[in-house]
């Protein structure tokens, strides 16, 4: 309607303005143009030319110009034929001679000839100076729709190409499906516009900001946001220095983000304790998130624990933010993929260095030297490029081809030094394993396991295997059969193999885990897991955690199972105990056996092995058996056959031998001696029972 009035009314308006101008210049006889048709035609041509550069006013085209000329020409012909289409009183010489004087124009505009000028405008409008308004709006809508579809498609491609973040990707696509469903429902029912606000929680460098940009594009592409603008800020851009300054800054950011997304990084810092204006910013933000929830989206980002605390401290955020995306740390393979992608995007060839890149990142990861995820990778890539530039400046090496040496130098990993350290540690640990008395089957199985681990590490480094390897174990067998000792050695071997960052050994049992009140057990277990991270957590008599009763054993098992899954790439949990009881433990909770791929069965010691154990312990105390005592010991041990407690029995037995020796020496008045006699052995056996 407005456009029709514009096209029909503008000629009259312009003619009136021109006549007023003529009157103002006191030029009643001033001839601007001869003939109304000329002026009308000039008007349409000028407007047509102007509108070529105007997006909201239609463009001129040839058919429209012809239509205008023909319609106004019709006015001339009709007048030339002398048809009386206007009242005789208006046909005066002053009109004919001076058509642009004010008086003549005034009478002319209200005459019937004006009808023909308007007719020209109508034809001009209808024939095609521009498309019909409805048609044009439809085309514009189609163009906007096409733009949105292209942006949506590009955003989804970008999301799919991001390294890792599989859980986040799945949640975003589920969120999209929900929005698409709501849009369909809105066509057949009354549906309120959804609140879009979100929390992104997780460690730094995990892609939160990039995903926020993608979310802006997705929601714009789906039609739930007016723009795909992302306004990124943090505390420093929000909190002011004086009363009213914070309000001004916060409102400015909100207004700037209106129609799009406001992304606040480290949002929990707004609720810092103190006398600053953080709470003022929070109050303003909460009000906008409620009052304008259908006009923009707010994403609050930060560490998971801090964001959880923010929600607990402020119910306003919890009630206004329906969606929470959790970002986890990148795994070593994902970090390696990310580094390789960054190098390739900059035009560098990495084919020759892919394996060493993964090896370096896995080693760094297991040593606990990676912090910052994607940011750490960017710094590593920068160092790699620096080393590459230095190397090609001094050598005849090919520019743009990254080598293993570039990567090792960038990571600060001198090959010979680290390999020597690991080889030495492995050598020492294997020597300790071989020196253990008995356990021949266990030794063989541990070495086979180590070979398997090293092969799997090579598969991971080469990218053949993308699955995290679980190394958790069960050690079954009676007490005193070397389970704890083997576990200690295993930690060293896995560190030497680069599968654990520290190889440290943490030992615990039920008494150190089960608490006395709600939450105590969970805290105890988490502390032990944190202490053991990078090494081995050995839980002796693990079956005792699920004793019947109302204690908190099941709570401990739940925390343990979760950690065995989440930390399996840098933690080994070994559950130990009697074989039958350990089988019961496995049956009691299906989550345990599914996370323990390796079981080692420790047998009781034979009489021969117990004889070696006793001799070994005596040697530790610088004591030695006489020849006759040695024969007596072997014969007596054969007759006993079973040793309750195994190595512990042997240590207790040596204690009794030493007591017998002391009594014998004291009673005889002899000098202190290192020799153990037949009498000492027999007396010790008698007291053992």
Automatic annotation (TrEMBL):
Coiled coil, from the record: none
Gene Ontology MF annotations: ATP binding; ATP hydrolysis activity
SUPFAM superfamilies: P-loop containing nucleoside triphosphate hydrolases (SSF52540)
Classification via CDD domains: AAA
Keyword Nucleotide-binding included in the entry's annotation: yes
Record field: transmembrane: 32-50, 62-83, 108-127
Keywords carried by this UniProt record: ATP-binding, Membrane, Nucleotide-binding, Transmembrane, Transmembrane helix
Residue span, AAA+ ATPase domain: 194-331, 469-602
Keyword Transcription: no
Signal peptide (UniProt feature, chain positions): none
Superkingdom, natural source: Bacteria
Similarity field: Belongs to the CbxX/CfxQ family.
Name of protein: AAA family ATPase
Source species: Cohnella ginsengisoli
């Amino acid at each position: 309607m407005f456009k029709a009035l514009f096209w029909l009314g503008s000629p009259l308006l312009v003619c009136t303005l021109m006549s007023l101008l003529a009157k103002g210049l006191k030029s009643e006889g001033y001839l601007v143009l001869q003939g109304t048709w000329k002026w009308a035609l000039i008007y349409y041509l000028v407007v047509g030319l102007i509108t070529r550069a105007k997006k909201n006013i239609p463009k001129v085209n040839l058919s429209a110009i012809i239509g205008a000329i023909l319609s106004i020409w019709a006015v001339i012909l009709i007048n030339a034929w002398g048809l009386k289409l206007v009242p005789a009183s208006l046909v005066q010489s002053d009109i004919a001679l001076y058509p642009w004087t004010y008086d003549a124009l005034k009478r002319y505009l209200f005459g019937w000839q004006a009808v023909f000028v308007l007719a020209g405008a109508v034809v001009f409008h209808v024939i095609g100076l521009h498309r019909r308004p409805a048609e044009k709006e439809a085309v514009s809508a189609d163009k906007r729709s096409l733009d949105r579809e292209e942006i949506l498609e590009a955003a989804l491609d970008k999301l799919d190409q991001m390294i890792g973040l599989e859980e986040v990707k799945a949640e975003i696509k589920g969120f999209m499906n929900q929005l698409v469903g709501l849009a369909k429902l809105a066509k057949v029912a009354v549906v309120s516009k959804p609140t879009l606000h979100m929390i992104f929680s997780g460690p730094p460098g995990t892609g939160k900001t990039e995903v926020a940009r993608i979310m802006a594009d997705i929601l714009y592409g789906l039609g739930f946001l007016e723009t795909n603008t992302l306004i990124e800020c943090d505390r420093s851009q929000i909190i002011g220095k004086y009363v009213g300054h914070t309000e001004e800054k916060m409102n400015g950011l909100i207004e700037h983000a209106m129609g799009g997304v406001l992304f606040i990084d480290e949002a929990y810092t707004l609720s810092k304790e103190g006398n600053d204006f953080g709470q003022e910013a929070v109050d303003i933000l909460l009000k906008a998130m409620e009052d304008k929830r259908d006009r923009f989206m707010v994403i609050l980002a930060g560490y998971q624990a801090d964001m959880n605390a923010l929600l607990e401290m402020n119910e306003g955020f919890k009630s206004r933010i329906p969606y929470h995306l959790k970002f986890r740390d990148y795994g070593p393979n994902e970090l390696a993929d990310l580094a390789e992608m960054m190098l390739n995007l900059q035009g560098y060839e990495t084919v020759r260095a892919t394996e060493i890149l993964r090896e370096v990142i896995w080693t760094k990861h297991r040593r606990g030297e990676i912090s910052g995820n994607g940011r750490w990778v960017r710094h590593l890539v920068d160092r790699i490029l620096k080393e590459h530039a230095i190397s090609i400046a001094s050598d005849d090496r090919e520019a743009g081809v990254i080598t293993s040496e570039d990567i090792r130098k960038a990571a600060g990993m001198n090959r010979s030094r680290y390999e020597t350290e690991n080889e030495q540690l492995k050598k020492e640990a294997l020597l300790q394993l071989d020196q253990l008395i008995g356990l021949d089957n266990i030794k063989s199985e541990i070495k086979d396991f180590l070979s398997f681990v090293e092969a799997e590490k090579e598969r991971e480094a080469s990218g053949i295997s993308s699955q995290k390897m679980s190394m958790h174990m069960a050690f079954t067998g009676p007490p005193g059969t070397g389970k704890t000792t083997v576990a200690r050695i295993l930690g060293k071997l896995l560190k030497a193999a680069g599968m654990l960052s520290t190889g440290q050994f943490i030992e615990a049992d039920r008494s150190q885990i089960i608490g006395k009140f709600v939450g105590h057990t969970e805290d105890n277990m988490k502390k032990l897991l944190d202490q053991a991270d990078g090494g081995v957590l050995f839980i002796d008599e693990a079956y005792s955690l699920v004793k019947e009763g109302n204690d908190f054993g099941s709570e401990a098992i739940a925390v343990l199972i979760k950690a065995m899954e989440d930390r399996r790439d840098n933690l080994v949990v070994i559950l130990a105990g009697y074989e039958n009881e350990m089988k019961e433990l496995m049956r009691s909770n299906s989550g345990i056996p599914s996370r323990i791929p390796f079981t080692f069965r420790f047998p009781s010691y034979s009489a021969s092995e117990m004889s070696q154990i006793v001799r070994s312990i005596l040697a530790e105390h610088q004591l030695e058996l006489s020849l006759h005592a040695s024969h007596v010991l072997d014969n007596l041990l054969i007759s006993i056959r079973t040793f309750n407690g195994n190595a512990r029995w042997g240590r207790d037995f040596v204690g009794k031998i030493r007591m017998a020796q002391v009594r014998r020496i004291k009673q005889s008045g002899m000098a202190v001696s290192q020799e153990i006699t037949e009498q000492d052995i027999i007396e010790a056996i008698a007291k053992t029972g």
